[in-house]
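User: Before I run my own analysis I want an independent prediction to cross-check against. Here's the chain; please return only the structure tokens and, at the end, one sentence I can use as a sanity check.
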Amino acid sequence: MAFGKRAVQSPPTYLRTAPAAAAPAVAVRVPSFDFTAPESATPDRVKEAPRSIPVVTPLLLVILAVVFVVEVKASPMLGRGFTPPVSVIVAYGAIDRSLLEAGQWWRLFTAPLLHANLGHLLSNAVVFAIIGFMLEPLIGPRWFAGLFAAGALGGSLASILLNEPNLPAVGASGAIMGVLAAAFLFGASARSGPKGRRMQTWALRMMIPALIPLAANSHVDYAGHLGGVIAGLVMGVVLQLVWDRGEDRPHFGNIAAGAGALVLAIGLCAFVFGAGTANVASAMTRSGLIPDAEMPQGETISSDRAAELVARYPHDPRAHLFRGIAFVTGAHDLADAEEQFRLAANPYAAQVAGLSEEFTKGAVALLAITLSYENRQEEAQRLGAPLCDFTRKTNDAYYDTMVHRGICTA
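Assistant: Structure tokens:
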């Protein structure tokens, strides 16, 4: 502990100057001691980390935004919320176990840079900005870059090990969860200063919901989140171990920065050269359409069969149509059905697949009906009203439902 200055008390009576009548005139002086210990000599004092201006946090936010813009610009079709089709996301570097087993190891580095849609990007960016602007000024940009890289790789590895083999995964969530876990550990340290408890509170508020599955059919990659947390906790312990008392910053900062830069460089290079436009174009060619022998027979299709078709033929609009129908008739999942119908109704995708205009109109009619059941009547009428004559002539079931839902008038 640090010692403060103490007032020197009056000496005992027997040390005071004796009265002139009782003793020789000899003054006895009390030595004066300075009880203030120099700060450098205090063995238990932990020096609070100096603050710096965040550099890595805004840089990574810009990189993630630019990568997403490239995704959107290169995509031949987009779903609601600027959602590229699964084939495009996979082509650009999503986690896919079968492709990793085929030697495309670079997906470990590209997947944390990709996002499934605009909402996915914005939610990750907000969380990352909050925790990044708290933690980076305390531990410095070099170790912060290392934490991000460790969380990214931890999330990618957990996605491969724990998710279904045919489930693509993208997003910076693993990296962000790693930063949150490290921030929680660091917040308990004296180096975090008076704002450490506040940083811990924020980290817990954002970490816990991201680790608890809220729905069985959720699209959230909880495995990736868990992997990021584990990597962040390990790095947080290492960070504390290599930070000597009295030092402004932890040791091995250059190594942490180098590892972070290497992970980012591999991811960006693979995104630009390993994936890119060529793979996206090849993913959208006609050669990948559902063969006639595998086309479902009848008007109903099981959820498993529809999911298999989307996984094997993700760029065929008919696969998304079947998947949407399965969501409606099986799980009664309107939100996922809407997403699939939007992909099926994209006219460019139908043109690439060589499908007729009637197919696209039918998909739009199903989308309008789904929106009406989601109580989005205005949007349902805007999309479905122009198709009333078409459905009346081609599909009585669609037309009757659209009349019943108020999209068309009898």
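Sanity check: The chain has a mean pLDDT of 81.
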